[in-house]
Specification:
Radius of gyration: 17 Å
Structural class: alpha/beta
Number of strands: 7
Distance between the termini: 45 Å
CATH topology: Rossmann fold
Order of helices and strands: HEEHEHHEHHEHEHHE
Strand content: 15-25%
Oligomer: single chain
């Protein structure tokens, strides 16, 4: 019998808690596959803060540490500096990273800390009730913006990858999505490249993954994928933002 597909050893045999259509499970799978293919499951340390990934330690087969909301880059800095030969990554959502954790991610990139951040951007607070995030699009509705985000009240959505790319300590930033197989394959390549450049000691690496949140967007899975490509990817263009 020919094996067509086998679950990655980078994930534990645990049922995910994510909503149907959520992108987090797919991204977890890709990170797990890359760790397995690179042979780094036993040495990798993941930092997962409060948010949609709060239970990620139950899913990844590598060692993980749970950080306070927004503080994953600070924890990862300490972990990487004390374990310089081990792969270290943070796994953060847009509310966590771009709002309460903005200072931590900016200064980690500025210092060129040698860990990798996987930034899940679904343009909304997914776990805590669908509030407006720094990445919520103009006109997009949220529980704290029932009429849609306005520039006058909340300013323009922040393009995190572009912002961090102005800092010399960041050596690689790419924005990807996981809406279909071709984009999924590109996302996996970006995840691997980020790990490789980290382990080569080049500096801070950053992969932004545009993600769906059908529950808080009020959409079905297919509709959410289309909305992502038509709207999120239009404001947050896919591709390599910076590579040194």
């Amino acid at each position: 019998m020919t094996t067509i597909y086998q679950k990655t050893k980078g994930l534990q045999d645990t049922t995910l808690h994510y909503c149907p259509g959520c992108s987090h499970g797919i991204v977890h799978k890709l990170i797990g596959e890359v760790m397995e293919e690179m042979g780094i499951i036993d040495t990798t340390i993941g930092i997962c803060p409060v948010g949609c990934a709060v239970f990620a330690g139950n899913y990844f087969a590598c060692d993980t540490i749970e950080a306070a909301h927004g503080r994953a880059p600070a924890v990862a800095t300490a972990v990487k500096r004390t374990h310089p030969d081990q792969p270290v990554f943070t796994y953060q959502g847009d509310g966590d990273l771009a709002s309460i954790g903005a200072a931590e991610i900016i200064h980690a990139a500025m210092r060129g800390e040698k860990f990798t951040t996987f930034f899940i951007n679904n343009a909304i607070y997914g776990m805590t009730g669908g509030q407006m995030a720094p990445t919520t699009l103009i006109g997009q509705r949220a529980t704290t913006a029932p009429g849609g985000r306005t520039k006058e009240q909340a300013g323009e959505p922040v393009q995190v990858a572009e912002m961090l790319s102005t800092l010399k300590g960041l050596v690689y930033a790419e924005r990807v999505c996981v809406t279909d197989i071709p984009h999924l394959n590109k996302a996996k390549k970006a995840i691997r490249k980020a790990f490789e450049k980290q382990m080569a000691g080049e500096g801070f690496t950053f992969v932004e993954i545009l993600a769906t949140c059908p529950t808080n967007w009020g959409m079905g899975t297919a509709e959410a994928n289309k909305w992502l490509m038509d709207n999120l990817a239009a404001y947050y263009p896919l591709g390599v933002i910076k590579e040194v």
